[in-house]
């Protein structure tokens, strides 16, 4: 488990350099007193481990920029991939406050060693487009949701794809969550494309997405709390947490309406990663809700998982799954 006594730790993502696992995580000082205030004070920290359990903290990766900038409020969740030329790319969410509210866009930083990062002068490289995606001016949501980039290579070698937490432009306000999509030939320039799922499938937003092939099956992983689900979905008794949905391929289509809870809301921001010792898939997540309902923080130890043909099972009796 990874925790910081002086700070809350929440969303995170991982990279493997062939020798160590690298954990990039959001954190903010507990001196804020109120956990909800952490979002507007988030920086991106960094730790390394050989076994996904014992972590050593190393210098931070990124902090917010001086105003005015797309990330002058906070740096939020992202992902890390390696270009064929050896350069590491850290894609992340930049948050800024406008008079109308919080606006999120996507930028990136590069590194030769995963330790020292340099933000791109072309940031941001992606933002919500009113043709396919809801924007703040639509007045339907509390922010312009366009964040949590998950980047992966095209299965057929045709560039790179990015999944983005975004919202569609139609339907009830609490049911517009979609899998946003963009494509790039080189990781540096990006083309926004239509979403890979439809609104109206039970979620106001699908956070911290990831897609992987687990036990031979493409699986979409995301997180959503009950407070961000549609009224109809909450009426079924769903409580929120880490969700998994079957996919026809790594690029969908994604049957989000058929998603199931892999965990309850004691865990959030789940990430699938292959354990180096045996190559098996495990799930890490941050500890979200405590016994008293309050926010906890801190990244869990790895939890074994399997895909049983229709759902992702977390093989740990201590995790209450649905």
TrEMBL record:
Keyword presence, Hydrolase: yes
Gene Ontology terms for molecular function: hydrolase activity, hydrolyzing O-glycosyl compounds
Keyword Nucleotidyltransferase: no
Pfam families: Glyco_hydro_32N
GO biological process: carbohydrate metabolic process
SUPFAM superfamilies attached to this UniProt entry: Arabinanase/levansucrase/invertase (SSF75005)
Taxonomy, superkingdom: Bacteria
Domain Glycosyl hydrolase family 32 N-terminal: 19-224
InterPro entries, per database record: Fructan_Metab_Enzymes (IPR050551), Glyco_hydro_32 (IPR001362), Glyco_hydro_32_N (IPR013148), Glyco_hydro_beta-prop_sf (IPR023296)
Keywords from the named record: Glycosidase, Hydrolase
Family listed: Belongs to the glycosyl hydrolase 32 family.
Name the UniProt record assigns to this protein: Glycosyl hydrolase family 32 N-terminal domain-containing protein
